[in-house]
Specification:
heterodimer, A: 243 residues, mainly alpha, globular, B: mainly alpha, 8 helices, transmembrane helix (chain A), membrane (chain A), transmembrane (chain A)
Chain lengths: 243, 162
Amino acid sequence: MVNWIWLFFIVASFIAAALTGRMEALTEAAFEGAKSGVTVSLGLISVMVFWLGLMRIAEDGGLLSKLASLLQPVVRFLFPDVPKGHPALGYIMSNMSANILGLGNAATPMGIKAMQELQSLNPDKSTATPAMCTLLALNTSSITLVPTTLIAIRMTYSSAHPAEIVGTTLAATLIATAAAILADRWYRSRSGPPNWKDHSGKGNRSTTERPETSLTLTGGRAGPAASVDGGLTAGGGKGEAVV
Amino acid sequence: MIVFIPLYAAFRKVPVYETFLEGAKGGFDTAINIIPHLVGMMVAISMFRASGAMDMLSGLIRPLFDYFGVPSEVLPLGMLRPLTGAGSLAFTTELIKTYGPDSMIGRIASTIQGSTDTTLYVLTVYFGAVGIRRSRYALKVGLFSDLVGFVAAIIICLFVFG
């Protein structure tokens, strides 16, 4: 679907530019877009490096597993196919908490880390698993408790009640998130788990090795580190194509 | 959080700085891996806006908004929001500046901007980082929830502030 949307953008832009005589602006916009793509990525480096460093400390210190076990019921409901005690759950939890608190900067690295952990459970490295889709759905709808940026902008333009949109935002975000979860569930039940087929295959290593019984994470180096590397190499090896 | 996490870990006898460096290295690689994905998306979106295709599309939907008495000024925002975070934030700011933060348009724009996220960006970054090429139904779910959030934001604002 992304392929089609991308193609649609390019072709529609070309046709529209031809009709409105904005061909020059089109080329300029393309390079402008490329530039901002790089700028945004480079801007992410500082945030990613810092937060992932901090999160590794949290992981080794056992904080992440604490968080995961605390919010276990919610996550188990949303991610039934992630094995209990898997590090992915910890990252998913931190990602959700950061989103809820409006810490967008902190949410992204943890969401990516969660994806990498989920990727370690994925037998088909180029196709998203249901769990990945759920995580994405949660992030695109992003429950927001306090929209700090918006309040700041409203204050700048001297609003009488800058925070009056907190209630409406919360209501709208809850509805959007509920819709995302429902839609995700619907697609999940409809499509089944198609890329779960090779259970004995290479990809499922982490699933089978991880003991189902351990409710709390060991916080040990071996478990998480192994799967992190697995996720990273998998991403680097196959992942050069456009999403 | 920045103080608490290292303190807690140090208490648990974790070599904090070494551990930090170990994790931080991964962040660099990930950010670099995302570049092609983001460039691809940003180019398409930037072209779409500059060519006027976006304006044409919103011109098609506008009559529907007028019919329900919804200020159609917020329509481009609903289309921009899933595509570009910076772009939609700029547009929201523009709306707030033009119509005032306490106008209905200002309130609706604020609520839309605050309640949904940049779906295409999130998808690009998250799936790009792990090399997922077939995103299955993830985009549909994301766009669907954006649409629901957009409609909900308008209805709730009209109801609460109307």
